[in-house]
């Protein structure tokens, strides 16, 4: 560069908004892409099943999970350091659903939202269990999905939902008691 500082070997210098001499950045981007790809392949199915249990519509669940994974990729340096990135994706998907519902709640009729829908053959979850889960209050359903289905510890669930570990235990206890009562009465 005429009139500018001389570029030394290995030195990184900004020039017109671009970084010159930064070959090591390419390696870190490739590493981030590979880490995210591995995470996606490992967790996508569990996240989809978890969100599907909460929203009762496979197409919507797939859209929500895809959106959540896109957001995870956009914030991957932060999400990769999260104690439970899969829980972050599930929570983001469910929050996206809530945001969508809030924007459209005056436009959409909510009739029949508790109806039992046939379970997808690929979901591997009993339709009766899904219907029972959908009848739980939202917070109990979230605790069950994160604690039982994603097999997260109580502290991680508490951190993900922004509640105390004791509150997680209370919601889990109430949810399991409700589910147990529903299934015992059906079995009798």
Provide a descriptive summary of the structure in words.
By secondary structure, the protein is mainly α. The protein has two domains: 27-108, RNA polymerase sigma factor, region 2, helix turn helix motif (Rna Polymerase Sigma Factor, Chain: A); 127-188, Arc Repressor Mutant, subunit A (Orthogonal Bundle), CATH 1.10.10. The chain has eight helices and two strands; from the N terminus they run ββαααααααα. The protein has helices spanning 23-55, 58-74, 76-79, 85-104, 127-135, 138-149, 154-161, 165-187; strands spanning 13-15, 18-20. The protein has a two-stranded antiparallel sheet. Helix 1 runs antiparallel to helix 2 (58-74), helix 1 packs across helix 4 and helix 6 packs across helix 8. 23% of the residues are buried. The mean pLDDT is 79.
Any idea of the CATH topology of the largest domain?
Rna Polymerase Sigma Factor, Chain: A
> What proportion of the residues form beta strands (DSSP E)?
under 5%
CA(first)-CA(last) distance:
85 Å
**Structural class of the secondary structure composition?**
mainly alpha
CATH class category name of the largest domain: Mainly Alpha
The CATH architecture classification of the largest domain is Orthogonal Bundle
User: How are the strands ordered across the major sheet?
Assistant: 1-2
Q: What number is the mean pLDDT?
A: 79
Quickly count the domains.
2
In one word, what is the shape?
globular
Helical percent range? 55-70%
Write down the Rg: 22 Å
Secondary-structure element sequence? EEHHHHHHHH
Query: Biggest β-sheet, characterized?
Result: 2 strands, antiparallel
Provide a count of the helices.
8
What's the β-strand tally? Answer: 2
């Amino acid at each position: 560069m005429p009139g500018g500082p001389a570029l030394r070997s290995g030195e990184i210098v900004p020039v017109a908004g671009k970084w010159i001499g930064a070959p090591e950045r390419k390696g870190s981007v490739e590493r981030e892409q590979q880490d995210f790809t591995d995470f996606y392949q490992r967790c996508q199915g569990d996240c989809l099943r978890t969100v599907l249990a909460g929203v009762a519509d496979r197409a919507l669940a797939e859209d929500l999970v895809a959106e959540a994974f896109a957001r995870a990729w956009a914030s991957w340096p932060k999400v990769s350091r999260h104690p439970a990135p899969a829980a972050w994706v599930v929570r983001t998907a469910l929050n996206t659903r809530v945001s969508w519902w809030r924007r459209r709640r005056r436009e959409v009729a909510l009739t029949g939202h508790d109806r039992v829908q046939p379970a997808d053959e690929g979901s591997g979850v009993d339709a009766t269990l899904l219907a029972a889960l959908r009848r739980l209050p939202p917070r109990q359903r979230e605790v069950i999905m994160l604690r039982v289905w994603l097999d997260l510890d109580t502290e991680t669930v508490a951190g993900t939902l922004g509640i105390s570990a004791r509150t997680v235990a209370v919601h889990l206890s109430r949810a399991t008691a409700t589910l147990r009562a529903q299934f015992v009465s059906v079995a009798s």
